[in-house]
Structure formats: C-alpha cells, structure tokens
Write a structure and sequence with these properties.
Family: Belongs to the binding-protein-dependent transport system permease family.
Organism: Rothia koreensis
CATH class: Mainly Alpha
CATH architecture: Orthogonal Bundle
Structural class: mainly alpha
Strand content: under 5%
Helix content: over 70%
GO cellular component, one term: plasma membrane
Number of strands: 0
Membrane topology: Multi-pass membrane protein
Subcellular location: Cell membrane; Membrane
Distance between the termini: 31 Å
Number of helices: 14
C-alpha cells in the first residue's frame, strides 16, 4: 500500500491528545449546562411571559439584522473578493475595479474590526455614532429621531457584531469560485452585472446561506454591545441573552436556564440548517466536477 494512502500518516497519533482536550474544553461546559437545566420545569419556564417576549424580540431583531447583513454584505463581499482576485491576476486597472482594489485592504480591516473589539467598546462605539450626542445621532435627534435604547438600537448592535461573520464566510465562498467562470461569461458577452447575478451568486449560494445562518446565530447571542447601547428594557430591548442576565442578577437561576433552553433550541436549528447548506455545497461541487 502506498505510504500516502494511509490516513495515519496524514494525522499523527499524538495529535489526538490535544485535539481531544480542545473538544473537551468546548463540550464540557455545554454538557454541564444541559445537565443543570431543570427539564422537568421546562414547560412552565418557557411559557413565562417575560421569556416569550424576549424570544419574540430576539427572533424579530435577529431576522431583520440578518437581512440587513445580506443586503449590504453581499455587495461588500463581492467588492473585497473580486478586487483581491484582480490584484492577484495583475488586472487591477483604472475605474471602479481599480478603485475597489486600492481600498479593499483598508475596507477589510474596518469590516473585521468588531471581531477584536470588546463588547463594551462596541457598545460605546455605537453610542458615540448613533446616540443623541453621536456623530450621526445628533443630526437624527434634530429631526426627533432617537435610536439609542430602542429596538432599532438592538438591530444596529446585532448588525455591527454579526457583519464580520457574514462577510468572512461570504468572501470564502466567493473566492472558491474559479476565475475562468467569469472569463467564460465575459467572452460570451455578459456584463459585470450579469456575471455577478448569473454566475457568482448562484455558484456561491450554499456559502452565502451559511454566512446568513452564522450572522443570525451571532445576532441571537449578542449581549455586551446591546446592553451598552440599547439597555435592558423589557419589551423593547430585552432579548434572550439580556433576559438570562436579569434572571442571574435576581438570583432566579431557573428562569435564566429557561431562557438558555430557548437559545440552545435555536442553535440546534441553526446547526441543522448549516449541515443542510454544507450538503447542498457538496452536491454542487459534485455536479461541477462531473460537468
């Protein structure tokens, strides 16, 4: 048997130990949480008016923020991806393509910045831009438009923290599309708009679905920036994570764990949809390889 065909040579046995430790560091706390949840009281905990209200608000704001990420994140991802490929192929020329190529580095730095900012700093940044005395919020306040401590503040906080997850995943999906697909379409007379709509986006669809699901999951779990910028107002800004914080601060652990059940159920749903998106991606790759 050829040496390269044995999987043991591609993954040394000693790596199972650190890999197992890494898995334990993630699985252990999750197992502890599941064990401690009072499942016998789950029905009453899930039907609590405050929990139901928090669930409805979380789902509504997370869906809206995900749609926002999709609408503006796809064009941004296309800009970052195509300008990067233009530089790599040496085709970055004057015009819109050259301009995107020149600014793709700084744009990527800006888009991914929320990944390294602490939640409190993110909340302060939102406050200093959208708040009543913020850069844009001051102008909005003159028109009697208030953002901070409203449901819109929750949505903006979710978009701010989840946009990097969407863009990074979308960029990965778009980068995997062979350049020759665009060149063939251009040879056939397709415009840039047609190449994007009829070639790039359909090919990247499974990856874009994954990007949307990841941004939705991140929006569901957002806490720090939300409580700093939007507050913890029942019925207005109190999402599931904030409802958990209220339960813990009031020493009502069971109520907090009841909200945890909601989040866990939603995350299981997201993971299931992610697996479906991966399956669709594998089917698309198989069809492409046979074509």
């Amino acid at each position: 048997m050829a040496r390269g065909s044995n999987s043991n040579y591609t993954f040394p046995a000693w790596l199972y130990v650190p890999a197992g430790i890494a898995l334990l560091l993630v699985l252990g706390p999750l197992l502890g949480l599941v064990v401690k949840i009072p499942w016998s009281e789950a029905g009453s905990l899930l039907s609590e008016p405050s929990a139901v209200q928090a669930l409805e608000l979380s789902l509504t704001t997370s869906c809206i923020s995900t749609v926002c990420c999709i609408l503006v994140g796809i064009p941004l991802s296309l800009m970052l991806t195509r300008s990067g490929k233009a530089r790599a192929s040496g085709s970055g020329r004057a015009g819109s393509g050259g301009l995107a190529s020149a600014f793709s580095g700084p744009m990527a730095f800006i888009v991914y910045a929320p990944l390294v900012l602490s939640p409190v700093v993110s909340g302060l940044a939102l406050m200093f831009f959208w708040g009543r005395n913020g850069l844009l919020g001051k102008l909005l306040a003159e028109g009697n438009v208030t953002i901070a401590f409203t449901s819109w503040a929750v949505i903006l906080a979710q978009v701010f923290v989840s946009m990097p997850f969407f863009v990074s995943t979308a960029v990965t999906a778009l980068t995997a599309i062979p350049r020759r697909y665009e060149e063939i379409a251009a040879t056939e007379g397709a415009t840039r708009n047609e190449v994007a709509r009829k070639v790039l986006l359909p090919q990247a669809l499974p990856g874009l679905l994954t990007a949307g699901l990841l941004s939705f999951a991140r929006a569901l779990g957002e806490f720090g920036a939300t409580i700093t910028f939007a507050g913890n107002i029942e019925g207005t800004t109190r999402t599931i994570p904030l409802n958990i914080e209220i339960g813990l601060s009031s020493n009502d652990v069971d109520a907090a764990l009841g909200s945890c059940i909601m989040l866990l159920a939603l995350y299981v749903l997201v993971v299931g949809l992610l697996l479906m998106a991966r399956f669709l991606s594998s089917l698309r790759k198989a069809d492409t390889s046979h074509a």
